[in-house]
Specification:
By secondary structure, the chain is α/β, with parallel strands linked by helices. Helices cover 33% and strands 19% of the residues. Strands 1-8-7-6-5-4-3-2 form an eight-stranded parallel sheet. Strand 7, helix 6 and strand 8 form a beta-alpha-beta unit. Bound molecules: D-xylitol-5-phosphate (DX5) and zinc ion. Zinc ion binds next to strand 2.
Length: 216
């Protein structure tokens, strides 16, 4: 399977959200990445259930919902109702990760976990069987537009090895500072899904940029 592009709308024009989602529907984007921030797990706030639901009402691509929130297990059903197709919780935010992942799956969503840059990928070994995807943060979570952390390549390669040893079919997604400048090298390291915010929404023609990123 070729790589997937998941545009992050965090830095798009929220006054024009309808146009943004329509553009993504008509683009080669595979997923729509939504960043949920609670001002506690990360030093920033974004948006919540009403916005996710309204996006879901018009989106024609699966919603890839990235929770940067404490106690994500409290709201799993609400995210399902709002329209999440893939639900990513942070490893650092979960008291009982296995239970949380099983609940996400039981609700009919794809289960995914994200690691902050300082968290070792080794912690995921016991959980790979329950994981549809792992989201490797390649910047500190909280804001778009930051610089990619070069030390991420080693982490991705280690995780790729762990996944093939486990035979779990888990996808690897990266998020933060990704664009045409590093996509090919990241794919060679083992990445399947690319979350891309600034590089798409700062481009003069975002749909053309998505096509370019998809065809790399
Ligand atoms: C950051 C978010 C990202 C962000 C990526 O915490 O998880 O999804 O929107 O933006 P860029 O591509 O600008 O780094
Ligand atoms: Zn994200």
């Amino acid at each position: 399977m070729s790589h997937q592009i998941a545009p992050s709308i965090l830095n798009s024009n929220f006054l024009r959200l309808h146009d943004v989602i329509t553009m993504l529907n008509n683009s080669e984007a595979d997923l729509i990445h939504l960043d949920i921030m609670d001002g506690v797990f990360v030093p920033n706030l974004s948006f919540g259930f009403p916005v996710i639901s309204q996006i879901n009402a018009i989106a024609e691509k699966p919603l890839d919902v990235h929770l940067m929130t404490v106690k994500p297990e409290r709201y799993l059903e609400r995210y399902k109702e709002a329209g999440a197709d893939i639900l990513t919780v942070h490893y650092e935010a979960c008291d009982d990760l296995e239970k949380t992942l099983k609940e996400i799956t039981a609700l009919g969503m794809k289960a995914s976990v994200s690691l902050k840059p300082a968290t070792s990928v080794e912690v995921l070994r016991p959980f790979l069987a329950y994981l549809d995807m792992v989201l490797i943060m390649t910047v500190e979570p909280g804001y778009g537009g930051q610089s990619f952390m070069e030390e991420s390549y080693e982490r991705i390669k280690t995780l790729r090895r762990m996944i093939s040893e486990a035979g779990s079919g888990t996808l690897i997604e990266v998020d933060g500072g990704v664009g045409s400048q590093n996509l090919v090298q990241l794919r060679e390291a083992g990445v399947d899904v690319f979350v891309i915010g600034t590089s798409i929404f700062r481009a003069e023609d975002p749909a053309a940029m998505i096509r370019e990123l998809k065809q790399m």
